[in-house]
Amino acid sequence: MRPLLEVRDLVVRFPLPRRRPWHRRTFHPAVDGVSFTVAPGETLGLVGESGSGKTTVGRTVLGLQRADSGTVTCGDADVTRFGRVVPTAYRRRVQAVFQDPYGSLNPTMVVADLVGEPLGLHTGLTCREREERVVELLELVGLSARHLGRYPYHFSGGQQQRIAIARALALEPELIILDEPVSALDVSIQSQVVNLLEDVQERTGVAYLFIAHDLAVVRHISDRIAVMHRGRLVEIGDADQVCDAPAHPYAQLLLASVLDADLDGREARRARRRELAASFRTAPDR
Ligand SMILES: Nc1ncnc2c1ncn2[C@@H]1O[C@H](COP(=O)(O)OP(=O)(O)OP(=O)(O)O)[C@@H](O)[C@H]1O
Predict the structure, then answer these.
(1) In what residue span(s) does the ABC transporter domain sit (predicted)?
(2) Is the minimum distance from the CB of 55 to ligand 1 under 6 angstroms?
(3) 26 C-alpha vs ligand 1 centroid, how far in Å?
(4) What is the ipTM score, two decimals?
(5) Which pTM value belongs to this model?
(6) Could you report the per-residue pLDDT of 206-256, keeping only the tens digit for each?
(7) Ligand 1: centre distance to CA 266 (Å)
(8) CB-based burial of residue 58 (10 Å sphere; 0-12 exposed, 13-18 middle, 19+ buried)?
């Protein structure tokens, strides 16, 4: 099947602060030669420690961050050729949901406007049609028409994230970049939102690039998992394969912290961590 999203040899560099004004400018490769694809309707989990470059990849796919080299294509759109303004047609096809739902929802707007705004901007629906569609979207994420007139602060974190998801779904995108969408939520609410995302995917066929540092959550939702370390993609494969038999020492280390709970006794856990940390330090970068 032809991929929906194709990222090839992506490099994104950020300037480092100069120690002295006359020093030459140096750059830090936040993303360093990353390649992967996402098929229509697929979920690719992107994991890695803080600072490994996950968000930068997501922002580049959204067209919010310029690539220094490499290509990012989504369908027939070549994102690396976009100018400063992301074309409207692309914004319809690729949407995003971020970590902090309250921060990403305008606190002065009621739910009807928050979810209906993209419809007003990008479609020719009448007010009535728009409201009907907003109610449909709210029902899709487990809310209802009685929430239309409420403001974001009336909702819990999990419900706010549902509103953000409904808004992202309004224009029937082909791909949603989910950047740590459940990290700010309680564990019990996390599973509700993850189940909701799976349910929405089953009904709409939308693809997800699911960015997170929590491997347990990523394993649950992803078809495939890509592991990033210091800007590079060190492993990519089937979710079960990456979690059960990771090949790269960094992926093993990441997994060990999740699997600690399964190991018997504190000492065994420490020994395993020491062993992996040692192999990780000595292993060459791939
Ligand atoms: N606008 C920027 N200017 C300079 N450096 C940046 C900028 N954005 C990101 N970086 C740097 O690029 C690297 C990758 O950052 P990025 O946010 O993509 O990582 P991440 O894996 O998403 O981390 P986290 O999980 O903490 O969000 C980091 O070293 C970060 O400091």
Answers:
(1) 5-255
(2) yes
(3) 16
(4) 0.95
(5) 0.86
(6) 999 999 988 888 988 999 999 999 999 999 999 999 988 888 888 888 777
(7) 34
(8) buried
